[in-house]
Design a protein that fits this description.
With about 70 residues, the chain is α+β, with helices and mostly antiparallel strands. It contains 1 helix and 3 strands, in the order βββα.
């Protein structure tokens, strides 16, 4: 089992939409963030761009973790 992982889940439109990033260490949340749709884009593109941002942030976090 990997020690460091992440989850990206969809946020409800009632709280602004977009994506929620959870950074996990052995299954416990140790950080994360909210990635709302990018303003000025068509909704599908705005959501895709926000998802890409969340994924980029998650991958950067993973690469900064100690390798075991």
């Amino acid at each position: 089992m990997m020690r460091y992982t992440y989850e990206i889940s969809r946020r409800s439109a009632s709280v602004g939409g977009g994506w929620l990033l959870r950074l996990l260490d052995n299954g416990e949340e140790v950080g994360g963030g909210v990635f709302p749709p990018i303003n000025g884009l068509r909704l599908d593109l705005a959501l895709a761009a926000a998802r890409d941002d969340a994924e980029t942030e998650a991958e950067a976090w993973l690469s900064s973790r100690p390798q075991s």
